[in-house]
Amino acid sequence: MLRSRFYQAFVWPLLLLCASLVAAEQAEDPGRDGDEPASEIDKILEGHSAHGEVFNEGPRQKAYLMGGTGQVRFPISSKDPVVQKFFDQGLGQLYGFWYLEAERSFRHAASLDPDCAMTYWGAAMANRQNTDRAKGFIQEAVERRDNADQREKMYIDALDAYVKFDSKEKEKRNDAFTKSLENILLKYPDDLEAKALLALHLWESKSSSTSYIAANALLQDIFEVEPMHSAHHFRIHLWDRREPEMALGSAARCGQSSPSIAHMWHMPGHIYSRLHRYQDAVWQQEASARVDHAHMIHDQVMPDEIHNFAHNNEWLIRNLIHVGRVHDAVDLAKNMIELPRHPRYNTLAKNGSTSHGRRRLFQVLRTYELWEDLIDLADSSYLEPTDDENEQIKRLRYLGLAYFQKGNQEAGNAQIAELERRLETLKTEAETESSSEEAESEEAKKSATKAHKERQSKIEKLEKTINVLKGHKAIANQAFEEGYELIKGDGDVDPIYLAKVQWQAGHQDEAIKALRKNINSHKNEVQPLAVLAEILWLSDKKDECKTVLEDLRQISAQSDLDVPLFARLTPIAKELGYEEDWRVQYVAADDVGDRPPLDSLGPFRWHPSDAPEWQLTDAAGIPHSSAEFKGKPHVVIFYLGSGCLHCAEQLQAFAPRMADFQEAGLEMIAISTDDPKKLKESIDNYGEAALPIPLVSDEPLNVFKEFRVYDDFENQPLHGTFVIDGDGKIRWQDISYEPFMDPDFVLSEAKRLLSQDTSSDAD
Asked: CB 3.0-4.6 Å disulfide test: which of 15, 105, 662, 703 passes with 698?
């Protein structure tokens, strides 16, 4: 007992201190040779790369030749033809802004040929938005520069100079990189990739003097040699915000040039959206979503690890709203909220799937008057209360609107009362602050002033929100003029709804004029046209109604006629002589390229991957397996043995919370790299109380590899924490060079994920 107390009180903190000192030393010396024998203390830092901090982050599992990543022609100095294939794949992925997988391909190529300088150049290119990591990779390329030919040396020198520029010297840096790429082309005029990289750089670094015509001509040179080159992506970016028509040819070829890269399907959606061709935009963005979903499910990559994934899906939802695919818009928005959250890349505070999904779900429910759905979802994990004040005010506002629209005055008033309670609290805090305001220093005064401004901003927002809800209450009570006056000055009110209230208030001509103005600025969106058609019919302007309905029919092929707005149009359409299904069948335009069936690209929704099955033994030789967790949600911790102090620290954090996990219906087990004998040491060292987390041995590392908790490039295990549901699906994971140390987050996230019904996810 004394030994255990001494270990926990003195030895444990000392060893952790040693581990942190070694980590700091490694960070200062990232170039440590991977073949250099590790000291005993070095072994404490299990999961860290032998090559330093740059290699700690990023993908550490091997790549595979997936195909469909683009036509590139970039010969490199390597005797291994497989290295060339992975390099080409990485470059194609880089052209598609698929940076995570591009780095994986380049690192895989480097693992096959460690002396090939260009593989490290590729990894640096994949990290140009992360200068510190780019510097680390390009240094590896520079050290191997003598193994490269003259052309490759020019590429290496150009990027080396680029990353070494001070961040304040962007103009000089960009000019120097432009000239370096031009110098490559002057010496090697047939180098298509130098032209592609130059065109990309001209777009990324564009200024008022950048010639779009010249950049476009450079791209055209590429397409004359390789019509399906990935540089179609760059032409779309070039013209996206200026003359989108100029990129229609590339929009028809971009996804088809690199069908395995989701972002390449997404980018044509930019062009079609700018041109108000929303059905074509939806097709492209749905293709992108399906390709991303298929990749993530197949390769056990968590959503939002792909940086542009959420951007595509939220834009897809917007366009689904524009074409009236209401049920799919709701479905996908809910799926975005369902996705696993992670402190590094997907929380409500970050601009990822969680925040985008919640924003779009509110939008589609409001736009199409799905008030009952909004009320139900507000009582679920989809639109639950949050700790974010702004998000909570928004939730109360939408919920109040829904209750008033459904005629539930009592529930609507309750939302107003909650907002007023928050307002009074803030005002009391402001009064208390002003009465005791005697800041002693300038810094304290500045801090107090900032806090005062933030509080005043919150007070103003609450006051506006309360007034808007009182306006919705008045409208529900048919006091339309009063309601209109209360809501008309608020920028967050849907202008289509506002015009409808204006019409109800008796200002019919002004309302119709406002609707037509909105339609002119929102061309080919179905909701404004549908509302105008309804208003015209109710205004007894039947001929005008028929003209608007005819326009609506041409773009409504995919609209869901069972939602309230369109359902109200059905009897109107019948009286005007149309069939009950008044939509006109969609015919794809002839300038969109050859499109594969969407189902062949992947599922519409993301769903979790299957966890590998396993069977291992504990310190006493008793067998354990994944089968014993059938029907039981559980947490699996991959533990790098008794010599890993970070792992032991993780167990120390999770073990005391074991009862909380079990109360939530979650079991827990830790899979260790140790043999059974060393497992016993870990258990004995834990302390007086028995370690509540069962430990099992995976000394051969087979299960580590199955779960991808393994660095394939340096042949060592990594840290991993997983939440697995009762059906054996991986609902959440963290794989890293460091263990995940926040049991509260894991418990909270597990509860949220396991509360969801995913029975329909695998479509």
From this structure: 703
